[in-house]
């Protein structure tokens, strides 16, 4: 079983990535937007639909939908998933323009 992963609010992501797991500050400090290259990963979520049959009519239909995830790759090897954070930043920018 994997160890529990702590959760934190979306705005705290830059703060959480600037500290090591033991609580010490990361040296040099990382600025996610400036130092880390944005990357994109597409995964697929597949569900079995037992009500629908495939062309042969024997097996249930498997429906797969893409799930796009964003992350940042930092020079020191740190990779941080930023899917929710990127969407949150866009909402903030849109609200500031309005």
Give the secondary structure arrangement, pairings included.
Layout: H1 13-17, H2 32-35, E1 37-53, E2 60-73, E3 79-81, H3 83-97
Antiparallel strand pairs: 1-2, 2-3
Walk me through this protein's architecture.
This protein has one domain. The chain has helices at 13-17, 32-35, 83-97; strands at residues 37-53, 60-73, 79-81. Strand 1 and strand 2 form a beta hairpin. 6% of the residues are buried. The protein is elongated and about 60 Å long. The chain is 24% helix and 35% strand. It is built from three helices and three strands. It is an alpha+beta fold and 98 residues long. InterPro entries: Mitochondr_Som1.
Task: Give a quick summary of the entry.
By secondary structure, the chain is of the alpha+beta class. 24% of the residues lie in helices and 35% in strands.
List keywords for this structure.
Mitochondr_Som1, Mitochondrial export protein Som1, alpha+beta, 3 strands, three-stranded antiparallel sheet, 98 residues
The structural domain count equals 1
Distance between the termini: 46 Å
- The tally of strands reads 3
Give start-end ranges of low-pLDDT stretches.
none
Question: What is the percent of helical residues?
Answer: 10-25%
| Inertia-based shape | elongated
Strands side by side in the biggest sheet: 1-2-3
Count of alpha/pi helices: 3
Using only C-alpha atoms, the radius of gyration works out to 19 Å
- SS-derived structural category: alpha+beta
> What profile does the largest beta sheet have?
3 strands, antiparallel
Strand content: 25-35%
